[in-house]
Give the backbone structure.
Amino acid sequence: MDIRTPDWVKDAVFYQIFPDRFAQSSRVQKAGHLQPWGEPPSFHKYQGGDLLGVVEHLDHIAALGVTAIYFCPVFQSASNHRYHTHDYYQVDPMLGGNAALRELIDAAHARGMKVVLDGVFNHASRGFFQFSDLLEQGEDSAYLDWFHAGPFPLSPYDDDSKPANYAAWWGNRALPKFNTGTQAVREFLWDVAEYWMRQGIDGWRLDVPNEIDDDDFWREFRRRVKAIDPDAYIVGEIWGDAGRWLQGDQFDAVMNYPFTRPCIAYFGAHTIDNAMNEASGTGHVEPMGAEQFGARMTEAAAAYPLEIVQAQLNLLDSHDTARYLSVVGGDQTAHHLALTFQLTYLGAPCLYYGDEIGLPGGPDPDCRRAFPWNDVPSWNRDTLALVRKLTAVRHVTPAFQRGNFQVLHAQNDLLIYARSHGSECAYVLMNTASEARMAALNALDAGDYRDALSGQTVTVVADT
Amino acid sequence: MDIRTPDWVKDAVFYQIFPDRFAQSSRVQKAGHLQPWGEPPSFHKYQGGDLLGVVEHLDHIAALGVTAIYFCPVFQSASNHRYHTHDYYQVDPMLGGNAALRELIDAAHARGMKVVLDGVFNHASRGFFQFSDLLEQGEDSAYLDWFHAGPFPLSPYDDDSKPANYAAWWGNRALPKFNTGTQAVREFLWDVAEYWMRQGIDGWRLDVPNEIDDDDFWREFRRRVKAIDPDAYIVGEIWGDAGRWLQGDQFDAVMNYPFTRPCIAYFGAHTIDNAMNEASGTGHVEPMGAEQFGARMTEAAAAYPLEIVQAQLNLLDSHDTARYLSVVGGDQTAHHLALTFQLTYLGAPCLYYGDEIGLPGGPDPDCRRAFPWNDVPSWNRDTLALVRKLTAVRHVTPAFQRGNFQVLHAQNDLLIYARSHGSECAYVLMNTASEARMAALNALDAGDYRDALSGQTVTVVADT
């Protein structure tokens, strides 16, 4: 099968936003009972971020060199993370409703930025209309076949002393699983995907798509989405091997967690905080040296056809993990090296909002802190400057965007790799030790090189 | 206060539709698990009527002389009667969604018909978004002050072994009562009213408005609705004395149940089925003779200023009562007399769908049977012909629409009343006995009169 992924993704820098915590606009009217902005996050409280807040901070996002925003769910949902979808056709009123998303899409597109939404299609919520009908009517419900439910009555809000009597995601009663074997459900979910594509979004990040264990479902999903926009990006949340979905007929790529773990293991080798990892989506991470890291990254670069690897979503952290800076014990150098690797590796880098200013954060919910717009002194200006520099370098260096990946030297703390594309070749030298290291650069020809970070010329002379 | 009610109501003939049971259109895709059309109604099952079905039967409605349709709730709701509102901004998908209401409003208006919707503003449902948030987040909910709730957790689906811990309509856990003391809730409900007015509806029938015990709430409701359309009709469901709401600053009129009971008591005096009344919204009804009936109707005609009485919604039955024909023991003559009185009395007559073909029906849910479009032989053609005749007479007889009401003779089974308007005077003679009665018509001058039903001339000669 001819595999094609969107070209724009290969050159993109993504920015992931957790909408309740990024920014608030005074133009969006809020519910009365919010947690003050910036307080330690809780599982249940809202802090009141919204999509017009994002519009009003597009300058910041653009200045980071970001070309695409991936949003955690934005649809109406009785949860601050909005994974408990209540209505797939309505943007949450606290986020500003459909009008705010309209403004956001238009404002982002006007800057040449893409917008990717999170599609939570495996399960709905207890308040979702058709499930609500099942709760109210039992066997008489018109939507009896929309869920895997029975015998009745169901026990949606009881503790485990009563069986829920319906299938739910990981047994969580809050998240009743759709019966995607029912044609009306399939059509409903596909229509949601098409509806928002027609509203102008540029792709879908798919939440736990492996739980809909049905290749035909995803094939038809792809056909419909690509019929509206052949350049749409379809990226699945698959934590392990994703070969099944990356044959060219389902997803374009996946969230590259196999990229994440080695980046913690190598750059954080000396400072890694595994208590935090273990409480987070990442799980325990064994430290590793440059050899192993180089091998794993070489492997990841060849795990799928190049067309797909170039479109992988490479992330250091997300709303599901502790923040990278915290996972590496607050080691800013490790964070900077990891960012450097992320921005110079094969695949689309995805920055998690706040990482660019060194926002710390433990496992969920702590990794979802409010962006401290009003506490600029708390920002790490070095990290911010580095991110801006690295994205700028990437954007003018096709070798970083599309070049192949070749490890030239990998030993102990020291890693050297090359990215070459056409006649251009870029080299990256990394040292994770706390002191200087010497390495023989016998892979480099003698001559003048430009240091991408400083802009200065570096002369490599032949070893005599 | 200057009291003004919409002129169009004074000349209107209303038709009340229960949307799940009026008509189905093949253009609306249905959920899979419906009860077959025409089976005995149940509390929980759907039969799948929709709004395009109404559009496709506007010929029938127009031929009845109907000029305004009052719909039981149409918004997304997990209940076949749709009083359990799930989303006030969405027409139920099974009814065809917002697009179907758009088509219906346009089609009705093209025929000069008005559209009045049922506004259920006192309470929402367990699946309603903001209440759902309360169920999910408890005290951390952003919408904590939208309902009267606590202590937490709430017990929405438990039986009475646990307290619900929130206020609900008549203690029904399915219907959590809004906290209309919260400004955001007030604004939400007013906005709903305004939104649908801007979509072109012609008024609101208000469900249990007395339960929102707050005149200022309704005053502002009226201001906003009338600002969009000064001719909007606001009619409250008030079963008893409605003076409080009929001062000119809240409702235009109310559902005239004080009209309903005497119509059962007098026309049904010989056949009344009180077991049925007692199980229905009407309650026990003592038979009465013409004297008492005449007195009660004279009283009702003077209960409020004329401007309001002319705009009262006069009904023989509704979705909340057994059907009139069944309440009077299936006595077709009583039904025909009652229809005649309804169509010749002061105030806007409201026909309940199906009554025009003699559809029987006991208390809820039996009074909500599907309209038997496919069983035309079951229709009572005499009743249908009478309704058409009576509405036609009313439309060409301003005295019936707007004239005053004066009882000329009321004794035992015999009732004679006059409706006079300007120089026109119409007389109605009724006999509820099963044989002919003689009466002295000394209130009528000698001369020629036109019998409105037959078109023939009747000559009254002076008694010598």
Notes: The mean pLDDT of chain A is 95. Chain A touches chain B through 47 residues (CB under 8 Å). The CA atoms of residues 414 and 431 of chain A lie 5 Å apart. The longest helix of chain A spans residues 183-198.
